[in-house]
Design a protein that fits this description.
RNaseH_sf; six-stranded antiparallel β-sheet; Nucleotidyltransferase, domain 5; 1016 residues; RVT_2; alpha+beta; globular
């Protein structure tokens, strides 16, 4: 009987030992790998054994293959499946799976910070919070914190704009370094653009920023926000303090945080090596009685009055006490507290009031930060503080132990100071119930308007009081004076200011507008107009059709002098949800060109024609829709009988993508039916020749200008338009598209005084010091010129607004064109140049372009170029001025598209640009029926370009010029244009290509007919 021994090898093999031989076999394939015979106890290896070729080939799958077979699970899961099921696997080591790396990328765990500060200001953490949805009592919307990593001591500053960060940091740095006698080594912030100027302004400070979208790397500052807000809201809730005082409470909370233990250590103690005095602390929001005797008018007045404790003064050793009757804040060290009474709870003022909220686009006044003073005490060592006065950004800094003894009897009495905090009026929000409809398909009519008592009817609209009648009486005290302790009071705010803010500011939401009677009435007027035009029909919602939403848009219509004319509420459909080809097709709608307006006005003035101005009320509602569009019922005006119905639109409501085109087609068809013809060279110009009489109509959306050589025909045209549309005759041209028209003895002066004043007010430069030129001659701007500007949106907004100002101000065309070249990435130097332009406009607000009443019908133009004027790409700037008789009707300052090899080529390209404008004007005048006295003349101060326009010379230097630029040579050859040489001193287009010195600039500005509006 044979003996068999089974042995399992570690390589998944089975060895069977018998008496006569030994057999080694693969466990998986059952294939013999090795057979050895035994003779006399010795195993003899047979070298002639035929080996299977599969014995040397591995058919085991790799770990990565099993990882893919199992659907890309985790490494641990893959190994668990392979090992537990004894799958054939060649190796257990993974190589990186790139597909998993891309698909399973996630945020890695944050390891604890290894850096440990060993001294104050070695590392300072900072972050900006805001904007707050509620403007604070002192007008703030942001705050910035600085946290010392060594002591965890916190400083807080309040801001009105984020752009103030770099300025505040410079103040903070100077003061803390002087106070603590050490310097800031490292500043850690997020990657916000508001911190970028700090890197350039303080290169000695290491500025470390967190990775994009990784606020955890700035955890100290982020966590401090939560700490401050949580404690502040808890204190405000406890005392029912209104949210408009959040800046006062935040300041006091930081004062307390610095005196509370953090991980058993008190920040105040670590930083100043002394313990804080907790005996001075009182409950925020409790009733207090400050000594007011210094403010009494006679000796028989009470020496105190009940106030609310708002917190601790940051610049004096005193408490901040709010008088609810006058909204004054008294700062005094002589205060008696009653911590069981909370006046805000008794007055039932909740934390949130609807009037406290403000839009992100609300105008914010600029921040003014003065130097922050140290507080001194007579009876002890002077105490350094980092806190400004109440009207400045507040920084809560530590007080010495002697300063903490605020009520100690050995401290001398200090007079109190009073400041006033604005009060926000509370306007209740009312709800309205629309009248019931009579059927499922209800056409919007007057009867379907809301009938609440708060909703005025159309009959009441005619009796609307003027905006001036709705203003409250003037304030009793209008002066801002100093207190006896030489602290400056904040600006006085009264009910007039609060009311002015609500009446002069356009509401951003329906709830804001609904709280004011004037805006509720404006909405009623709009709904009445929608009903008269049969704008929609109420129908059940469609099954598979998109339903658009809508919103109310509010606009204050003003007179030419800036005073309020009326309040306009407009219901706008949210057309951005429309789909092309589904609920709209074509959208293009032309508007009249500014050059066309100036040409028609020049003809009218030189011919002594009457110029009338019209306005079409609810213009878009006249347009007919050809597509099927559904819209939800407007907010506040939902029909209670059919609350789930939607509006099937019949008219082109504002906001729809096709609305401008639908209105223009409606108006265009009406004018054509009256005998007008649309111009081939400006579709928004309509021309009528009736029995030899000329009549012109200029259309810019719903603003219309009518002029002609027969006053009777002008009146008939207005009457015909009134039969088709709700046209309002505004009389003689006076205010069109933001342009004031002033008739003088010399002609018609077009200015944009109000528009520019509004722009200057928006950037707080209305009272800036004027300069005499828009751009300095020694300034060369480039794209890499200086540090980046921290508010590029403001820069783009200002330059975009100035583009529109060039309609009546050719003297700023070059400067605006130059500044527009840096819209993508403006720097501080670019913003400085923009502010200089604004200062120039501040001194020339009443300037505009004069259209003379005596002029001829001849065209002459001036063309110029500044060769390689741009230092960034060495491209040139073209400029031209085109006159119709004495009147400047067209001008341009434009950067050329390519680099040119010579000044001749630059001037020649500018000639071609001017020639195309002249050709268009010639065709336009011919269509208007204006006979040309002579052929146009084009003046150029480059003799080479002049010769090149008349003769095909300089082939070697001009063979690379594009063919279309030789258009000017063709016009000269056809005897349709004269190109003549003029000396540089008489080149009027010089102002369009470069900055000029004052005498030269003022001379050319006069030649451009730019004059002041005060002329007789």
């Amino acid at each position: 009987m044979s003996q068999v021994t089974l042995t399992t090898c570690p390589l998944s093999c089975l060895m069977m030992e018998e008496i006569s031989y030994t057999l080694e076999m693969d466990l998986l394939t059952k294939t013999p790998l090795l057979q050895v015979h035994s003779i006399n106890g010795l195993f003899i290896l047979n070298l002639n054994l035929n080996h299977s070729p599969q014995a040397f080939l591995s058919n085991r799958a790799s770990t990565n293959v099993w990882h893919a077979r199992l659907g890309h699970p985790s490494i641990a899961t893959t190994l668990e499946v392979v090992n537990s099921n004894k799958l054939s696997c060649s190796r257990n080591k993974f190589s990186l799976c790139h597909d998993c790396a891309q698909a399973k990328a996630h945020v890695l765990p944050f390891s604890p910070s290894s850096s440990v500060s060993t001294s104050p200001l070695q590392i300072v953490h900072s972050d900006v919070w805001g904007p707050s949805p509620i403007v604070s009592s002192q007008g703030f919307r942001y705050y910035i914190t600085f946290v010392d990593d060594y002591s965890k001591f916190t400083w807080i500053y309040f801001m009105k704009q984020k752009s103030e960060v770099s300025h505040i940091f410079s103040i903070f740095k100077a003061q803390v370094e002087n106070l603590l006698d050490c310097t800031i080594k490292t500043l850690r912030t997020d990657g916000g653009t508001e911190y970028k100027p700090i890197t350039n302004q303080f290169p000695q400070i290491l500025h470390q920023t967190s990775c994009p979208y990784t606020p955890q790397q700035n955890g100290h500052a982020e966590r401090k926000h939560r700490h401050i807000i949580e404690l502040a809201l808890a204190n405000m809730s406890y005392a029912s303090i209104p949210l408009k005082y959040w800046d006062e409470i935040f300041s006091s909370v930081v004062f307390l945080i610095n005196r509370l233990p953090s991980n058993k250590f008190v920040p105040f103690t670590i930083l100043f090596k002394k313990n804080p005095n907790y005996s001075i602390l009182k409950i925020l929001g409790c009733q207090c009685f400050p000594l007011t005797r210094p403010y009494n008018s006679h000796k028989l007045e009470l020496r105190s009055l009940p106030c609310v404790f708002l917190g601790y003064s940051s610049s004096q050793k005193g408490y901040r006490c709010l008088d609810l009757q006058t909204n004054k804040v008294y700062i005094s060290r002589n205060v008696t507290f009653d911590e069981s009474i909370f006046p805000f709870k008794q007055n039932k003022q909740g934390l949130i009031s609807s009037c406290d909220f403000v839009s992100a686009h609300s105008p914010i006044m600029p921040l003014q930060i003065s130097s922050i003073q140290q507080a001194h005490q007579p009876s002890g060592p002077s105490q350094p503080t980092l806190e400004p006065t109440s009207q400045q950004p507040v920084t809560t800094a530590p007080l010495s132990s002697s300063s903490d003894q605020l009520l100690s009897p050995q401290i001398n009495q200090t007079p109190i100071s009073a400041t006033r905090i604005p009060s926000a009026p509370v306007h209740p929000i009312t709800t309205r119930t629309p009248a019931a409809s009579s059927s499922d398909n209800t056409v919007l009519t007057t009867s379907s308007l809301p009938s609440s008592s708060n909703q005025p009817t159309p009959q009441q609209i005619d009796h609307t009081p003027s905006p001036a009648d709705q203003l409250p009486p003037a304030p009793l005290h209008s002066m801002t004076t100093r207190t006896r302790d030489q602290t400056r009071k904040t600006r006085v705010f009264t009910d007039f200011v609060a009311h002015h803010a609500s009446m002069e500011t356009e509401p951003r939401t329906f709830n804001q507008a609904n709280s004011l009677p004037a805006w509720r009435q404006a909405m009623a007027v709009e709904l009445h107009a929608l009903a008269l035009n049969k704008t929609w029909t109420l129908v059940p919602p469609p099954a598979n059709q998109k339903v658009l939403s809508s919103k109310w848009v509010y606009k204050i219509k003003r007179k030419p002098d800036g005073t309020i004319d009326r309040f306009k509420a407009r219901l706008v459909a949210n057309g951005f949800h429309q789909e092309e080809g589904v609920d709209f097709m074509e959208t293009y709608s032309p508007v009249v060109r500014p050059t066309t307006i100036r040409v028609v006005l020049s003809i009218a003035m030189s011919s002594q024609w009457q110029i009338k101005q019209l306005d079409v009320q609810n213009a878009f509602l006249h347009g007919d829709l050809t597509e099927t569009v559904y819209m939800a019922q407007p907010k506040g005006f939902v029909d209670p009988t059919f609350p789930n119905h939607v509006c099937l639109l019949h008219k082109s409501l504002y906001g729809l993508k096709q609305a401008p085109r639908a209105w223009f087609l409606k108006l265009s068809n009406a004018l054509v039916s009256f005998g007008f013809k649309s111009s081939n060279y400006d579709p928004s110009l309509f021309i009528s020749n009736h029995n030899g009489h000329k009549l012109f109509v200029l259309v810019y959306v719903d603003d219309i200008i009518v002029t002609g050589d027969d006053d009777k025909l002008v009146a008939e045209c207005i009457e015909q338009l009134s039969t088709q549309f709700a046209v309002k005759d505004l009389g003689k041209l006076h205010y069109f598209l933001g342009i004031e028209a002033q008739f003088t003895t010399q002609g018609l002066l077009l200015t944009q005084s109000k528009y520019l004043a509004d722009l200057l007010n928006r950037v707080n430069m209305i009272n800036s010091k004027p300069v005499l030129t828009p751009m300095a001659t020694g300034v060369t701007l480039s794209k890499d010129d200086g540090a980046l500007f921290d508010d590029p949106h403001l820069y783009r907004s200002v330059i975009g607004a100035l583009q529109y100002a060039t309609l009546t101000r050719p003297d700023i065309s070059f400067t605006v064109n130059k500044l527009s070249q840096f819209m993508h990435d403006p720097t501080l130097n670019h913003w400085t140049a923009a502010k200089r332009l604004l200062r120039y406009l501040c001194g020339t607000l009443k300037h505009g372009i004069l259209i003379h009443s005596t002029s001829t019908n001849t065209i002459h133009a001036y063309s110029d170029a500044d060769w390689a004027g741009s230092i960034d790409d060495r491209r040139s700037t073209s400029g031209f001025c085109v006159y119709l008789g004495r009147n400047l009707v067209s001008w341009c300052a434009k950067k050329q598209p390519t680099v040119l090899r010579s000044s001749t080529e630059a001037e020649y390209r500018s000639l071609a640009l001017t020639c195309t404008e002249i050709k268009w004007l010639t065709y336009l005048l011919e269509e208007l029926g204006i006979a040309m006295v002579s052929k146009p003349c084009l003046w150029c101060d480059n003799i080479g370009a002049t010769f090149l326009a008349s003769n095909p010379m300089f082939h070697a230097r001009t063979k690379h010029i594009e063919i279309d630029y030789h258009f000017v040579r063709e016009q000269v050859a056809d005897n349709k244009l004269d190109v003549k040489f003029i000396c540089s001193a008489d080149q009027l287009s010089d102002v369009m290509t470069k900055p000029l010195p004052l005498p030269r600039f003022q001379f050319l500005r006069g030649k451009l007919n730019v004059q002041c509006g005060t002329l007789a």
